[in-house]
Amino acid sequence: MSIDPIIQSKPFAITLDVGTSLLNKTGTWRNERPVYLDRLPPCNHTCTAGENIQAWLGFAEEGDYEAAWRQIMEDNPLPATMGRVCYHTCEGACNRAGIDEAVGINSVERFLGDQALMHGWRIDAGSPTGKKVMIVGAGPAGLSAAYHLRRLGHEVTVFDANPQAGGMIRYGIPKYRMPREKLRAEVARIEAMGVKIELNTKIEDISTTRKEGQFDAVFMCIGAQLSRSAEIESDGKIPIHDAAVVLRDSELDNPNQLHGHVVIYGGGNTAMDVARTSIRMGAISTTVVVLEAQEDMPAHSFERDEAIEEGATLKYLHSIKRVNGRTVTLEKMKVSENRWPKPTGEFDSIEADVIVQAIGQDVDTAILQNTPAVNLKDGIPQINEAMCTGEDGIFAGGDMVPSQRTVTSAIGHGKKAARNINAYLRGEEWVAPDKHEVVTPDMLNTWYYSDAPRTVRPMLDVVRRKTGFAEVVGDLDVDNAVFEARRCMSCGNCFECDNCYGVCPDNAITKLGPGNRFKFKYDYCKGCSICATECPCGAIKMVPEDI
Q: Does residue 42 have a pLDDT over 50?
């Protein structure tokens, strides 16, 4: 092709005609160049289940709900459950909160999980490996590990002492938060992959059962179902129950004696669950005695607020000193310099017919009595980076090891354990991949995103909430789910908005087609950084050029 003589005659520096960058190869001017990269969205970073949230929100945004669900299932086998019981720390980290409100990630996950149950979507097991794995505990950690191990082709048997699978999801979280039919359906889907779940089977000795069953590896993940108790001086005229027993009895429809004036001792989420269960069981009054100040109590604020809405009374900075007959003597506390409550020597009293202690739970480690190689410290099995105990082939996770005792963390533990067990069975070592740089608000151009207030999920009327165990929080519909997914800003990940392509003054960007993003033509890029500056989601970075 011949070159226009007018262009030839112009000085290099003022050759501004369209297309002249192709002629002049303006890349020779450059001292830094742009690169496309995937940064780590803060929602992904804070998810202890390890979900690729931005990716599945992207599928949901396009209305491809099955693809979105399958992306979740890469990490989490219980999305309908998690969409109800997860405390969604991902939303607390969401950069969108700097514009209006965080994306309702949890609500979209719940929608996708329910869509899967409605349409009967399934996950296939992997090709058989001939290896057998024993899992002790059918709670979230055990179910997660079983699912991932089955996807890897291993034969899996889960043992649990309870009559139903689910662990503390079933026996520690009331029905008004977690409808049992949803949990049953997600467990059934895992069983349909070929996972065997042996219920009403308490393992007395790990080593013996492993040997008898010829299991190649073991994952221990027994839930924290033993309640801690405070020393309360009492004449024994009114019952003092454990929170775990009360919630379990409620699940089994056994009499739990939550009657009359109920007093709960504790300030965590379990205490709120007991209080709200007490109200639904017809208690005359429900009082929660909280050791901490309101701002320091461990329960999540929405759990606290919903308990108060339903009629619970919270007495902050109080401890139970003694019980005489139906009179409960409380000692007032004050906040010390380190925020820990201190007694004041001042007292008041309330009336009670029942007291429930909800101050924490521990794990029963009696099954390890004949496994001396498993090192216990303060009753907790010690594990290495691969989650393996001192006994070859025995792994531990969930509530049995130091961690956040949440369903989300337990599911993450199950996935990590499965990867390490799979590596062990193959004579390999699993190494976690490096994480990308986390996206901070200053890396985004938030002004490109229009205001879009968060979708508010419907809530059951307070009157109806107090008289039964119907689910309190409602669902998103199809339109709301798409809208909420589209509020995601795709932090750190190119969503092909064409911004870089449109603003480049040198025609130095090539579109590679839907789903394939873009490519820089460095011969013609002069490193002006306009593309990086104008990228809405922070997916372009300027790096020094090798000169």
A: yes
168 and 270 belong to one structural domain: no
263 inside domain? yes
Indicate the burial class of 376 (C-beta count within 10 angstroms; 0-12, 13-18, 19 or more). middle
d(Cα 546, Cα 527) in Å, to the nearest integer?
13
How many secondary structure helices (H) and strands (E) does the chain include?
Answer: 20, 22
Which of 361, 383, 407 corresponds to the end of one domain? 361
Per the CB < 8 A criterion, the answer to whether 301 and 331 are in contact is: no
Residue 1 has pLDDT above 50, yes or no: no
DSSP state of 466: T
Residues 290 and 394 in one domain: no
Q: Rounded CA gap, 516 and 205, in Å?
A: 54
Average pLDDT over residues 167-189: 94
Closest CA to 371 of 383, 386, 381: 381
Structural domain that includes position 478: 42-121+444-486
Residues 396 and 294 in one domain: no
pLDDT for residue 19 is more than 70: no
CB 57 within 8 A of CB 488: yes
Residue where one domain finishes, among candidates 310, 342, 361:
361
Query: Which pLDDT tens digit goes with each residue over 208-267?
Result: 899 999 999 999 998 776 677 788 889 989 999 999 888 888 887 665 678 899 999 999
Q: How big is the chain, counted in residues?
A: 547
Q: For 459, which DSSP code?
A: B
Q: Which residues contact 103 (CB under 8 A, 6 or more apart)?
A: 43, 57, 91, 94, 96, 454, 484, 485, 487, 488
355 and 369 inside one domain: no
CB atoms within 10 A of CB 516: 9
Cα separation of 139 and 160, whole Å? 9
CATH number at residue 59: 1.10.1060.10
Helix 180-192 / helix 140-151 crossing angle, nearest 10 deg: 30
pTM greater than 0.70 (yes/no): yes
CA distance 287 to 290: 9
Q: What does the pLDDT average to over 298-324? A: 95
Query: How far apart, in whole angstroms, are the C-alpha atoms of residue 249 and residue 240?
Result: 15
What backbone torsions phi and psi does residue 135 show, to the nearest 5 degrees?
-120, 130
Strand-pairing partners, residue 519, are 510
Same domain, yes or no, for 103 and 162?
no
* Residue 236, token pair as written in the block: 């024994």
Strands 217-220 and 132-136: parallel
Domain count, the chain: 4
Say yes or no: 60 and 114 in one domain.
yes
150 and 106 inside one domain: no
Q: Does residue 210 share a domain with residue 149?
A: yes
Contact, 271 vs 288, CB < 8 A? yes
Cβ burial of 430 (10 Å; 0-12, 13-18, 19+) is: middle
Closest Cα to residue 415, out of 68, 66, 142?
142
Taking only the tens place, the pLDDT of each residue in 277-305 is: 999 988 999 999 999 999 999 999 999 99
Q: In whole angstroms, give the CA distance from residue 185 to residue 187.
A: 5
